[in-house]
Design brief:
Distance between the termini of chain A: 23 Å
Low-confidence stretches of chain A: none
Shape of chain A: globular
CATH topology of the largest domain in chain A: Rossmann fold
Oligomer: homodimer
Largest sheet of chain A: 6 strands, mixed
Number of helices of chain A: 15
Strand order of the largest sheet of chain A: 2-3-12-8-9-11
Number of strands of chain A: 12
CATH class of the largest domain in chain A: Alpha Beta
Structural class of chain A: alpha/beta
Order of helices and strands of chain A: EHEHEHHEHEHEHEHHEHEHEHEHHEH
Mean pLDDT of chain A: 94
Strand content of chain A: 15-25%
Radius of gyration of chain A: 18 Å
CATH architecture of the largest domain in chain A: 3-Layer(aba) Sandwich
Helix content of chain A: 40-55%
Number of domains of chain A: 2
Largest interface: A-B, 21 and 21 residues
Chain lengths: ~325, ~325
């Protein structure tokens, strides 16, 4: 069951110049992550594939780009009162690390079932954690209350122009490094990465065809794209891709993404598992489920990459060995 | 029980100029692998650590360097009759790929219990495989017989000057990229990597302190170093580090390594497991047990890296997901 959201903003929330400004703010702080290629991958897909490996970004995922861009842009006297966010994990670590770099307090509202490795890493950056029940409570409302109580600034995980433009530096760097692309496949949860990457990619490579990729169980973007308006899933999607369990496109990410993409692709949890295995065994990369989804769409043939130059985001690698082994072995029937 | 080997050659089998010549042969064919750093690793060890990630080498391990150097140096009319080798896996893939690049036949003598991922990858490069029982048969004798039968050239896994000098380009690249090092820790099986790396490192960075690192269960080098002569273990060592199950130092690697190293360190299988987990969870790298042994010595405090610039070889990542998960979970009591 789904609910159609009321129509909200109409135009894009960011422009290419915002992504360029973010790149300046992040220079020397965020890692310029490697672009990886594989002869095996090219043979399997018939494409020239360029993987932007945000697994090697600070905190192990692209989220540092958006969070640090947003926190860097705060007025110093506002920033020093601290920051708050709600997140399934990587954004939490991103906000925590950025706060640590600025020596300001960070409070993270996190689901009780967040992966232990993410909880430990967030605490490792010195942040306070407030837990909530992912399936019963409204994380956004809790985060807002915490921010009010502390006088701190809320840094949303995706639906914020500075977060979107910060994340867009992922595609900016990729295209700067490898040149024009025919296709770009981007992992899609709330749309914070896709909105920024699509904005940058279309500006740099106007002929590019851009696809967002989300898990089948959480196809809020695919449904929204089909209907031409934001659709909210009635339940939190159950998928191994814990970073892509959003119920609806963002109010700001949706109108930014919609005119720039060719469409939305979905992948099954088993297709994600196969891709995690491929990345592990053939490319020696550790990837969390959400981070493998865009490549899963290419490997599963959801889009035809033959004879094309294809950019793919590998968005994160924050998963413990035990969780990784468990997920790989629990295949869906 | 151990047996002392008869003394054989006395001087080093290679010189620095051999490593430099190998670097020329490998240019544009072998990957110049990345040097990885980690703030967490530096904090844990008090050192500045530079990991030379041969997991990203062609075939997923440093072995391509030695094998391709040796095969490249053959006279064309000899080379075209094909090559043969015996190997626990990575050298097999290295010879197979190099043969494929030269369009010549390759036959690999491989233990029946070699990891399935390595067998599949070797076949994937178009090589023929002849299996033998690691605990009962003499692999070297079988490989020699196969070579005679086919009129092909035997490419030994480590005890060959061209293999040693090819592998030495690993340390050559590392020091070229990061500058002088105080310490160099090298994974040690037959000594093919250590002999080449020590030769290059001492030439480039004369004050460097070099350690070989082998599994506790297969301490043939540590025993040899203590006695001042080659010692052969009575049994094939039982360790998770399948690439380091050699029974004795090589006839050529031993006299090359001995005068150049400070000593030999050993690590337990559990220390290797902990290091594989660290590399997975914090650095997002897949490493096979043998590949993690040198870093294990540093993380377990077998050598003091504090306030030093430490180079460490991460030698390979050829392990399937299932084997990785099994090894990590089967801790020794």
């Amino acid at each position: 069951m789904t609910i159609t959201e009321s129509k909200t903003t109409t135009g894009p929330a960011i422009r290419f110049s915002d992504v360029q400004a973010a790149a300046e703010r992040l220079r020397g702080v965020a890692h310029r992550t490697p672009v990886l290629t594989s002869r095996t991958l090219d043979e399997m897909t018939g494409a020239q594939v360029y993987l932007k490996a945000e697994t090697f970004q600070r905190i192990g995922a692209f989220k540092f780009r958006g969070a640090h861009n947003a926190i860097s842009a705060l007025e110093p006297e506002v920033r020093e009162r601290g920051v708050v966010t709600n997140s399934s994990g990587n954004h939490a670590q991103a906000v925590a690390l950025s706060a640590q770099l600025f020596s300001i307090p960070a409070t993270i509202v996190m689901p009780t079932d967040a992966p232990p490795a993410k909880i430990a890493a967030t605490r490792g950056y010195g942040a306070e954690i407030v837990f909530y029940d992912r399936y019963r409570e409204d994380r956004a409302a809790i985060a807002e209350q915490v921010a009010r109580d502390l006088g701190a600034t809320l840094i949303p995980p995706y639906d914020h122009p500075l977060v979107m433009s910060g994340n867009g530096t992922t595609a900016l760097e990729l295209i700067e490094e490898v040149g024009d692309l025919d296709l770009l496949l981007v992992c899609l949860g709330g749309g914070g990465l896709l909105s920024g990457c699509a904005t940058a990619a279309k500006a740099l490579s106007p002929e590019i065809e851009i696809w967002g990729v989300e898990p089948e169980a959480g196809d809020d973007w695919a449904q929204s794209y089909a209907r031409g308006e934001r659709v909210r899933l009635a339940e939190v999607p159950r998928t191994i891709a814990d970073g892509q369990q959003t119920e609806a496109p963002g109010v700001l990410t949706w109108p930014t993404v919609r005119p720039l993409v060719k469409g939305i692709l979905t992948v099954s949890d088993n297709e994600i598992r196969d891709t995690m295995r491929f990345l592990f065994e053939r490319m020696k990369l550790v990837t969390e489920p959400s981070g493998a989804s865009a490549l899963a769409a290419l490997l599963a043939g959801k889009v035809d990459g033959r004879d094309k130059r294809v950019g793919v985001t590998i968005t994160g690698g924050n998963i413990g060995v035990d969780g990784f082994c468990q997920i790989i072995n629990q295949r869906d029937a």
